[in-house]
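A reminder before we start the practical. When you read a complex entry, don't treat the lines as separate problems. The point of joint prediction is that each chain is placed relative to the others, so the output describes one connected object in space. Small molecules and nucleic acid strands, if listed, are placed in the same frame. In the example below there are two entries. Take a minute to note the order of the lines before looking further.
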Amino acid sequence: MNPWLLAVIALELGLVICTLVALRGTLPEGIVAMEVASCAGALAIAILAEAVGRPAWFDLALALALMSLPGALVFLTFVERWR
Amino acid sequence: MTPREIIALVPLGLGTLVLLLSCAGLLIGDVYDRLHFAGPAAVFAPWLLLAAVAVRFSSSEAVIKMALLAFAITFSGPILTHATARMVHRLRHEKGIPENAAGHE
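Here is the predicted structure of the whole assembly.
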């Protein structure tokens, strides 16, 4: 198997761990898991794009990485204000 | 495999390992401990994976977009870590919500 696809599978394993932490932990722990998961997810998409030779898929990873910052900040602001 | 592709496997493996260890670190300690593990995932892993893509150099488009991605993740990581720590601190010390009650209604 292509080693780049193996790296994608390993990164997906990391996403599974983040999902478990977000489901089982407290709200702040879940938010931390969400932040790591957005990073791991964007990089997994990027490595997948490289693995299958489709550079256009990098745009998806870039969009995810760029949108995760304001999304998480808005979420944190709402939790801080209305919790 | 060309020598270039074989060399690219080193940063690829290292970057993947750093990300996996960061995700595994989320299972340890309280929320402040876990915040530490978000650092390597946002700072080291993107640049290692960028190095892998750059060494392999399948296309210049891929390298440029991967560089933008690495910059975006590295830029947003410390900001999110700081904002999360600030939120947790305010929940605990200003609103007096204990950690165990901070997640579930």
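Discuss with your neighbour: Chain B touches chain A through 56 residues (CB under 8 Å). What might explain this?
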